[in-house]
Design brief:
single chain, 385 residues, alpha+beta, 2 domains, 10-stranded mixed sheet, two-stranded antiparallel ribbon, 15 helices, 12 strands, 56% helix, 17% strand
């Protein structure tokens, strides 16, 4: 207890300097935590992936489609409970700056497959009845001010033309990790239009979402699906939803790497700031360390004092930074929740915050400790007075 009291007294001997250093660490940890939360947002689809869903796509690439006729064959495979065709639409609302994920699905089966989304029964019935209807996540609807009955137009990129949809359903996620930024509509609406305007692109599916009876059957069912269409004109690659989402994230590897690099640079800079503070403190107290040596204090005790003071400052800043991460993330979610993936502070982020804070405290104390324990008693006593 006495040692802890001594550490706090020494750490705050120069209050302004100490608090400014703590403020620097706080800002760094806050920035580090928010950047890590952004990275976690990219991987939110991986975390919420269901073990009971697998994705079947063209074995060559996602840019190649599969025949719609595959659906009936996949349904007959043992272990398959549900299947829904899905086409990435890639439509533009107003302009490119207003991007959001939008795709065509077979609505009834899609709703059954994604139990993590909550639908109002009357809205769901209206959505299922109207072929030109669309569903939007609550965050997406709030972003653009959409409400039930609104007519919106998407400009097709993959599928040219202006496509009109009526908002019939606004869904919510069962928990905050669910993606509430999606826009989906009837596959039949897309397919029937293609039959009239571009028959060669009709009856084509970008991917199949397949439900399986149990998670432990996923690998066997996936293997059987791919075996069924081996040596066909359009061979398939079937993988778990988690693996599929990871392959999508790999397209943004450069962005994720830059974000992580920026977070690392922030921690390195703050470690340098804290090291400078500890160096100034140790230089001012060389005489005190010399006196302690004459009283029998060994290098380990003096080193413990310096390391302890450094850790008090860095951990204090880390605690403040970690606590501020929650309201900052909440504000970020309110302002940009309709653009970014689910922005949730995970426990793992807090562990990384404290690991970073501990690393800053340790690194900042290494050089001052080495210099302080290496000085001779006579040289240190000369600095007194």
């Amino acid at each position: 207890m006495f040692l802890l009291k001594l550490l706090f007294k020494n750490a705050f001997r120069h209050k302004l300097r100490s608090w400014l250093t703590i403020l620097s660490v706080t800002i760094a940890i806050l920035a580090f935590g928010l950047l890590q939360t952004v990275v976690d947002g990219f991987y939110s689809g991986v975390r919420r992936a269901s073990v009971n869903r697998i994705i079947t796509r063209n074995a060559i690439s996602m840019t190649f489609s599969l025949p719609h006729s595959y659906e009936e064959k996949i349904k007959q495979i043992a272990g398959v409970t549900e299947i829904s065709a899905m086409n990435w639409f890639g439509g533009i609302y107003i302009d490119e700056k207003h991007f959001f994920p939008n795709f065509a699905v077979e609505p009834a089966s899609f709703v059954r497959l994604y139990s993590e989304y909550i639908f109002e029964p009357h809205e769901l019935q209206a959505f299922l009845r109207d072929r030109k209807s669309a569903a939007a996540g609550i965050k997406l609807a709030e972003r653009f001010g959409w409400k039930i009955g609104d007519v919106i137009t998407l400009k097709g990129t993959i599928y040219p033309g202006n496509w009109e949809f009526v908002i019939r359903m606004i869904y919510r996620g069962r928990d905050e990790s669910a993606d509430e930024r999606l826009f989906f509509f009837h596959y039949d609406y897309l397919n029937e239009t293609m039959k009239q305007t571009s028959s060669g692109r009709a009856d084509q599916v970008g991917a199949y979402i397949v439900g399986v009876e149990r998670g432990d059957m996923a690998a066997d069912v996936a293997s059987e699906i791919d075996k069924t269409f081996r040596n066909s004109m359009a061979e398939t690659l079937t993988e778990t939803e988690k693996s599929f989402n990871l392959s999508m994230i790999s397209m943004a590897d450069t962005v994720i790497m830059v974000v992580r690099l920026v977070a690392l640079v922030i921690i390195v800079i703050i470690a340098a700031v804290a090291a400078n503070t500890m160096a100034m403190t140790s230089r001012e107290r060389i005489g005190e360390f010399a006196v302690l040596k004459t009283l029998g204090f060994g290098a380990s005790r003096i080193g413990a004092l310096i390391f302890g003071e450094s850790l008090v400052i860095s951990i204090a800043g880390t605690i403040f930074g970690a606590l501020l991460t929650y309201p900052a993330a909440s504000l970020f979610r309110q302002l940009l929740g309709g653009i970014f993936p689910p922005f949730v502070v995970l426990n793992g982020t807090l562990y990384l915050d404290f690991a970073a804070g501990l690393a800053v405290g340790v690194v900042a104390a290494i050089v001052p400790t080495w210099r302080s324990i290496g000085i001779r008693i006579a040289d240190g006593l000369r600095r007194i007075g």
